[in-house]
């Protein structure tokens, strides 16, 4: 029986685990980093917690006799992807990266793409967003761990939405909204209006779970600062299709 490890935590990882579970010739283990409370669990065996870096992951692959490795982590899980690449190289276990397609700007969108969270934060201190004489009101959907990048900005008020509470004290200019998608365009539109938001800051995560905020921003003429994904390491085999990933594993 071939043994498969899926580095998961995404909807694509859960879909892949469910598809592979029907194959009697496979034993599938899904690994979750444990950074989200009450995560949605995939079908089959689940392992929670880190591996201890690339060497720890390599040792685990060998100890558990893993035949195939699929990295289906979040598009911004750069360190985990790097660990997977290094562990695959060290052990010879074949690796496939499964990434959902990114978002694309369409008619009516007003996006400004930047290469990092720090670059997005730098843009918020300019005078282009809010009305003269008042603070810039920002809809921040880049995850709780990014909050320290934005919280110290002068003249900026943040509506920071995340699944779990931020670590540490929350500054006075930050309102934390705990919520989990999927969302609706109607709900996002109402949220933007209720808090009189000037600009949306988000990461190019892709997928349909949180795309409603982009639709609401388009309808309301709200500008969007879009943080681009980190590039995949050179030479890595990748796909954006769950079906293609399943076929690769089974083949």
Secondary-structure blueprint:
Elements: E1 2-7, H1 11-20, E2 26-32, E3 45-48, H2 53-63, E4 68-71, H3 78-91, E5 95-98, E6 111-114, H4 117-124, E7 136-141, H5 147-150, E8 156-162, E9 174-178, H6 185-194, E10 199-203, H7 212-220, E11 224-227, E12 238-239, H8 242-250
Parallel strand pairs: 1-2, 1-4, 2-3, 4-5, 5-12, 6-11, 7-8, 7-10, 8-9, 10-11
Helix pairs in contact: 1-8, 2-3, 6-7
Could you walk me through the main structural features you see in this protein, from its secondary elements to its overall organization?
- With 251 residues, the chain is an alpha/beta fold.
- It is 30% helix and 23% strand.
- It has 8 helices and 12 strands.
- The protein has helices at residues 11-20, 53-63, 78-91, 117-124, 147-150, 185-194, 212-220, 242-250, and strands spanning 2-7, 26-32, 45-48, 68-71, 95-98, 111-114, 136-141, 156-162, 174-178, 199-203, 224-227, 238-239.
- The strands form 2 sheets. Strands 3-2-1-4-5-12 form a 6-stranded parallel beta sheet, with helices on both faces. It has a 6-stranded parallel beta sheet with strand order 6-11-10-7-8-9, with helices on both faces.
- Helix 5 links the parallel strand 7 (136-141) and strand 8.
- Helix 6 packs across helix 7.
- The two termini are 13 Å apart.
- The mean pLDDT is 93.
């Amino acid at each position: 029986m071939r043994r498969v490890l899926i580095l998961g935590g995404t909807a694509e990882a859960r879909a892949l685990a469910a598809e592979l579970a029907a194959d009697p010739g496979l034993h599938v283990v899904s690994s979750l980093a444990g950074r989200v409370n009450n995560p949605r669990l995939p079908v089959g065996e689940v392992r929670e917690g880190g591996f201890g870096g690339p060497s720890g992951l390599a040792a685990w692959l060998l100890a558990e006799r893993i035949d195939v490795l699929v990295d289906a982590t979040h598009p911004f899980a750069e360190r985990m992807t790097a660990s997977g690449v290094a562990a695959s190289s060290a052990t010879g276990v074949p690796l496939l990266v499964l990434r959902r397609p990114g978002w694309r700007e369409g008619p009516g969108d007003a996006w400004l793409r930047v290469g990092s969270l720090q670059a997005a934060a730098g843009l918020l201190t300019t005078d282009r967003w809010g009305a003269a004489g008042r603070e810039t009101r920002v809809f921040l959907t880049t995850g709780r761990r990014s909050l320290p990048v934005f919280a110290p900005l002068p003249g900026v008020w943040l509506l920071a939405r995340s699944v779990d509470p931020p670590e540490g004290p929350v500054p006075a200019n930050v309102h934390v909204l705990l919520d989990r998608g999927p969302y609706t365009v109607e709900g996002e539109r109402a949220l933007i209006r209720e808090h009189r938001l000037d600009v949306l800051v988000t990461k190019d995560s892709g997928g349909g779970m949180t795309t409603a905020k982009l639709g609401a921003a388009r309808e309301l003429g709200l500008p969007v600062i879009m943080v681009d994904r980190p590039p995949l390491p050179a030479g890595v085999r990748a796909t954006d299709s769950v079906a293609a990933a399943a076929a690769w594993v089974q083949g």
